[in-house]
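Reviewers of the previous submission asked for a worked example of the structure-prediction workflow described in the proposal, so we include one complete record here. The input consisted solely of the amino acid sequence. No template or homolog information was supplied to the procedure at any stage.
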Amino acid sequence: MSIPKLNQQQWQRKLESNRREFWRDVGEGYKVLCYFSDAGDWAAILQTIATEIAGAITERGRLSRILDFGAGTGRPASAISNLLLTRFELRTSWTLVEPDSGARDCCRFLFSSEKNSPGGAAIYSSLPEVPTESPHDVALLMHSSYEVSDLDQSIQQLKSRLLGNGTILCLALPQDSPYFSIGRQTYGCSEHVQASLSKAGYSLTLYKLVSRIKILPEILENSNTLKALKAFANGDDLTDAEFIRMVRAHWRDETDFRDHLIVATPSKSNNEVSSIS
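From that input alone, the workflow returned the following structure tokens.
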């Protein structure tokens, strides 16, 4: 797959021109529009995911394959790939699935470096495009379950692209997270994902994580960032004044969105859920 020959400044301009699409990705939205009150929260989440992936891959000495469904711009995946290499000495190849064309361009740029993907990366626009002949060790969903129209179907499609003992990891917010308090639809939340995975025959371990944010006051006064924040919250139909009131009412001071990390492993008995805070 050819990679456009653009330098860093050109790529930055490209990212800026597609900012509304990119900022819909939850992880990217955190970085651009907010800051973590505890700067280690996001790093700790990525470390937990990397640790679980490393634990799921029992056969060492070969290239491990990871499928990221809803990869966004690829930044979380590239960070996890680097953690797996530097902390666990695991070389990985990645399959990145992302419907947005601008975000796929960013994935190609990030994963053109051997540092980010020692085993290379294949990039697709939809899950059915991913071949089933070369199964993956792990499938990963990071805040992408909300965009799935049929969770049960998507879980089955992921399962068919995994090894028999393959693991699915899903980062999702619980139904009562403040993230949903501003009117976002809750389909694809942690509880829905758990139900679909259990139905598909997986045993679940649930990690309750901390993901604290604080909206910067100047964001509410800047028209460009305010528009991006509205896109991030899927509140494009609101006027600026209405949206500012809503954000101040629901996300004032420090807010913990309370991420859940669901680790799903094949099981002969369904509905097994272990919770770890």
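The two ends are 42 Å apart (CA to CA). We consider this example representative of the routine output the project will generate in years two and three.
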